[in-house]
Amino acid sequence: MKVLTSKQMKEIDRTAIEEIGILGPILMENAGLQIVKRLREKFPNVRNEKVVILAGKGNNGGDGFVVARHLYNEGSDPCVLLLASKGEVKGDAAVNLKIADKIGIKINEICTPKDWNKQKEKVFLSSVLVDAIFGTGLAQPARGLYETVIEDINRSKAYKIAVDIPSGLSSDTFQIIGPCVKADLTVTLAAPKIAHIFPPAEECIGELVVADISVPGYLFDNDNLKLELVEEEAILSYFKRRKKDTHKGTYGHLFVLSGSIGKTGAAVMAGKAALKMGAGLVTVGTPESCLPIVARSSVELMTEPLPETSEKTLSSDALKKVLNLLEGKDALLIGPGISTNKSTSELVLSLLPKVRVPAVVDADALNILASKPALLKSLHQPVVLTPHPGEFARLLNLSTKDVVEKKLELVPQFAEKYGVHLVLKGYRTLIAAPDGRVFINPTGNPGMATAGSGDVLSGMIASMMIQEKNLLESILAAVYIHGLSGDIGAEKLGEKPLTAGDIIRYLPSGIRQLEIK
After folding, report:
1. For 338-361, what is each residue's pLDDT tens digit?
2. Which residue among 190, 370, 372, 517 is buried most deeply as judged by most CB within 10 Å?
3. 517: pLDDT confidence band, cut at 50, 70 and 90?
4. Do 307 and 159 belong together in one domain?
5. Is residue 216 part of a domain?
6. Are both 343 and 368 inside the same structural domain?
């Protein structure tokens, strides 16, 4: 499902109207009907509710007039508060205003703060508020009368339904640009927008419903629309039941280069997660003094002792053995818990250009790469980077704050520049492909912000890579099931007590949930 900017949505609307011939009033009628449908679902006896519709002078207000008409025709007595004079309403919205006026719906014109003071009591006496003030085109903060109205809407105890987007939010940013309605339900039209998906704006959306208003689906199949929300249906094929005539070699052999003294857990969790995700074989290469700990932690993992430094981290002397161990392997996972020791860093920087299998680069290996990001351009096989915002900030030599605020620009830019797949971890994890496409993962919860969660994810991604042919889709599937397993764990245990081990624990439940669909 594509996630659009206001400009992209406007162009799709224009194409539907001018080139395909779907009349604007038809799209507006469909939008209003979708709102009424959701009202009926939430309030089966909606005619008994005190419904107040706050309408602006644009098309969003026009949708509100359609809502008022259908409620009125069904026996309700909706109250419309128009934040403009009737004469200011133009185009398709004016058509629906005129109809509402003629059938007897009272339209209360509010042009000044004084007008609002006379009418605002209706907001506080209502049981349902329909916010149809601003649409997706808002770019500046709401001020003056609009600010006052929004504040009073939020003070009301009524159930609040926003048409397309809560008024006061800009659809093109997840930042809150000014005062905005805090909705209980948002019915967005045709496709979600950026503000619907990412916090903090997302926190004002409430429940989100994407409503079909009869815009032809093929208009969204455009290579220029590069931001997309991952849908479960798109990854289900990666969780189909296995064929009977297969063996462990069918599902690949992963080599994990991980661990140091005090961080052996990272190696164990990455390896365990890879096995639980279905890898046929997993070998963990780790400093020789760490091997007994890793080996005892999971008997299914194969282990290889590697030369170590005096600090018991991987030594640059391990290069030749690691390259030998990579012979016959299907992929490499490098980084969890390896430290940024000088000798370890030399190993990583010397090893990566010599790797001839797909690689997942995570954790400390990313911090090491931050000193030479250009090295990424010299790698021979597909590479997946899995940074959290802090690690990504180090790769870019920016602040974490800048990365968080500009992630929708920075993530695809980096992936395109270096020809890598990039997974920026966090709530609404972003997955970018080298061609600039960006996918938003919808699963996961704040309980997964815990030590080791990233190690589990890197193991799952590497595991899917060796089992499936399509690299991008295998990454999407792994990220999705990682979040889903965390969601199942949070449902069972709560978010606060959730640990990375619980994500592995509930991974089979997540896979089973998708497998039976």
Report:
1. 999 999 999 999 999 999 999 999
2. 190
3. low
4. no
5. yes
6. yes
Residue 405 structure tokens: 């605020």
384 shares a domain with 434? yes
Instruction: Report the distance separating Cα 49 and Cα 161, nearest Å.
Output: 14
CB-count burial class (<10 Å; 0-12, 13-18, 19+) for 43: middle
pLDDT band at 19 (very low <50, low <70, confident <90, very high): very high
What ranges make up the beta strands (E) of 144-237?
A: 159-163, 185-189, 207-211, 227-229
Say if residue 200 is preceded by a cis peptide, omega within 30 of 0. yes
One-letter amino acid at 87 equals G
**Distance in angstroms (rounded) separating the CA atoms of residues 426 and 24:** 39
Tokens standing for residue 349: 């920087």
- Claim to verify: residue 338 and residue 253 sit in the same structural domain: yes
Least Cα distance to 268 among 493, 507, 458 occurs for 458
Domain that holds residue 70: 6-223
State the pLDDT confidence band at 142, using cuts at 50, 70 and 90: very high
Output the pTM of the full model.
0.94
Burial 53-88 (b: 16+ CB within 10 A, else e): bbbbbbbbbbbbbbbbbbbbeeebebbbbbbbeeeb
**Tokens 């601003």 map to which residue?**
134
Residues counted in the chain:
517
Pairwise CA distance, residues 95 & 62, whole Å: 8
